[in-house]
Amino acid sequence: MQQQQSLPLGFVRGEPVLEKPENLYIPPDALELLLDAFSGPMDLLLYLIRREKLDILDLPILAIIRQYMAYVEMMRELKLELAADYLVMAAMLAEIKSRLLLPRPPSDETDEDDPRAELVRRLQEYEIVRQGAYELDQQPQQERDFFVANALAQVQASQAAPVEVGLDELVVALRAVMQQIDVSQHHQVSREVLSTRERMSQILDRLQQTPKLEFTQLFVQQEGRAGAVVSFLAILELNKEGMLRLIQAENFSTIYVHVGYVHEGAATSDGETHEAIADE
Amino acid sequence: MNEQQLKQLVEAAIFAATEAVTVDNLLQGALAGYKLNRPRVRQIIDELMADYSDRGVQLVEVASGYRFQTRAELGPALANMWQERAPKYSAALLETLALIAWRQPITRGEIEAVRGVSVSTNIIRTLQERDWVKVVGHKEVPGRPALYATTKAFLDYFSLQSVADLPALAVTRPELSSDPAAPSAQPDDTDNDGDTRERDADKAILH
What we know:
Chain B: Keywords: Cell cycle, Cell division, Chromosome partition, Cytoplasm. Chain B: Residues 174-207 are annotated as: Disordered. The complex is a heterodimer. By secondary structure, chain A is an alpha+beta fold. Helices cover 45% and strands 10% of the residues of chain A. Residues 1-5 and 262-280 of chain A have low confidence and may be disordered. Chain B is α+β, with helices and mostly antiparallel strands. Chain B has two domains: 3-73, Winged helix-like DNA-binding domain superfamily/Winged helix DNA-binding domain (Arc Repressor Mutant, subunit A); 91-204, Winged helix-like DNA-binding domain superfamily/Winged helix DNA-binding domain (Arc Repressor Mutant, subunit A). In chain B, the strands form two sheets. Chain B has a two-stranded antiparallel sheet with strand order 1-2. In chain B, strands 3-4 form a two-stranded antiparallel ribbon. In chain B, α1 crosses α3. At the A-B interface, α2, α4, α5 and β3 of A face α1, β2, α4, α5 and α6 of B.
């Protein structure tokens, strides 16, 4: 406004600058938001160039470096670890500026090694990537914009699925096994440790040889109650993990144990040991 | 088998397949018993596409073949069917992905040179877990860094048939006329005009 107001703050491309640009000041609180908004120093640099409506190909390094350093300074105050990558960029800007200031050897007439060239190329490259990322985000995206449609193929429709075995029937079956054991019970005093995981492996092993067994065949009379319980737990566990299937033709008929989907090594994994104490 | 049954069979085969199917998949699979040639199958698919054009589900061609998917406009409404929100990908992840798509096969160091920031391990892991990016070889320089490339699954996910479908990435790398010894200058033969991996894979496996 006042013409006689003295010295300009500086010159930008030959134009005197009298007032400080307003948009240089960023409230510190805004910085964290700001850092989230930028994906890195290149992003910040591109933003600064765009905001000042500067031409990438004709980068006024000084204007950029001033703004850039203002941001970096704030990052430093906030002790943001992220500043490292940004500092590298600042150093690069400073280096370019200093090389521009140095007088060139008179022999070097060619203007091809403008120190800005590499930065300009990187900025152009980054701009492409940024635009690419934007376009990628605009694409119809699975899970966000569309979902893949599938139909179930009724290939085995003719085979009726076997009746699922309910818990009640399992309990009944177990009781029958227990009764058998009670009848042929011997007096035992020894303590035994039976591992359910190990039993699971044994059962799977047997099913490998005979893919279909009667439920009761999986129990060993001699092992007594404890053995029966461990076997039962093992069967339940295997059934839960989908490694065997329990099938019966109709309610209260014989329950058969079938191999399910067998995963290699799944059964031999180390597991907890159920301690069972043979009756005392 | 009449015309209509044939169309039904192709439709059913694509619907029942768990992944996108190619014409060859169809010829070797569901259509194996019938003497059909490729143009014929393609013609049937085109007819099906037309039939579905105004339905909620559409038959589309993606990078790895044909599949049925819901119309993009229905996405926001359909998303309400599930508890979890659609994943939102960060700018850093999308930039990394776009860069790999554009300049593949590319090393981590090259990615960092362009983005000016170190590549977080999380991003690379996420990209690999989603099967969008895979290691296709190792660059024969000290340290033998892994070379990353995008996959067909990536193209499928973003409804692309090729990376060149993204106009921004259809351009070649800006040249630096001077200074051939720039630190980030690579043996730059990335002619990114086309299909995502097959060709690049040939190039990458140097060892």
